[in-house]
Specification:
This protein is of the alpha/beta class. It folds into two domains: 38 residues; 168 residues, no CATH class. The strands form two sheets. The protein has a seven-stranded mixed beta sheet. A two-stranded antiparallel sheet has the order 6-7. α1 crosses α2. The two termini are 34 Å apart.
Length: 227
């Protein structure tokens, strides 16, 4: 009804799909708003959802990829995006033994920051502010603590820190490279996950191993594979 950031939504859809008509663009935007509201409601449900419920609503098709790396004593950089439902990915910790860490931007409001950490951390996930993740990974690597570090990209990197550009949805954009850099420095395997919405309230994630040994690849090569 309100049309949250309506001008931005329409503008971005036209950039991404220049071949589509105005009618088609409006239809896509309407589906977006339906999904946007669904995710908002699901975020609220995250406060009370049980382990049994969340495993019914959010499934992983091939978690054995992570279990195999875990058996090899390999820590993982897990790459994803703010797509489908990004809150319930934290239920992954119910299916693996590795320590779970998620990189996040600390909220300015102390109350909501605490609530975010509590909700996202209910399944043994430790939220780490962006500025601290390098220190955490280095410490865990030195102490052989097998871990999974989740990076969910949703914002553009600062222009003065951009090292790599690529085309995304018909637009040349700066790409985050920090996760690959950390993986190479600490010899962490790189895995991406893609989530699809099966139906309202139900999601399915699939993992893709990009590099078991990232130093076997040239800089930014794993990013190209993920694209």
């Amino acid at each position: 009804m309100i049309g949250y950031r309506k001008k931005s939504v329409i503008y971005n859809l036209k950039l991404a799909f220049p071949e589509k008509s105005q009618v088609e663009i409006k239809a896509i935007s309407k589906k977006f708003y339906h999904h946007f509201v669904d995710v908002f409601i699901e975020m609220i449900k995250s406060f009370t959802i049980s382990e049994k419920e969340i495993l019914e609503h959010y499934k992983f098709t091939n978690v054995e990829i992570l279990n195999d790396l875990e058996a090899k004593k390999k820590s993982v950089v897990l790459l994803g995006s703010h797509y489908a439902n990004w809150e319930w990915i934290f239920s992954l910790n119910l299916l693996v033994s590795s320590n779970g860490y998620a990189v996040y931007k600390k909220l300015s409001n102390p109350f909501f920051d605490k609530k975010t950490r509590e909700t996202r951390g209910k399944y043994r996930t430790t939220l780490v502010p962006t500025k601290d993740i390098y220190k955490v990974i280095s410490s865990n690597s030195k102490n052989n603590i097998i871990s999974i570090y989740g990076f969910l990209g949703d914002q553009s990197p600062k222009i003065n820190k951009v090292h790599y550009w690529s085309k995304f949805l018909n637009v040349k954009v700066p790409i985050h490279t920090g996760a690959e850099m950390l993986a190479k420095k600490n010899n962490l395997s790189i895995v991406a996950f893609h989530t699809k919405k099966v139906k309202r309230g139900y999601y399915e994630s699939t993992f893709k191993l990009l590099a078991e040994n990232p130093n076997d690849f040239k800089n930014y090569e794993t990013i190209k594979i993920n694209n």
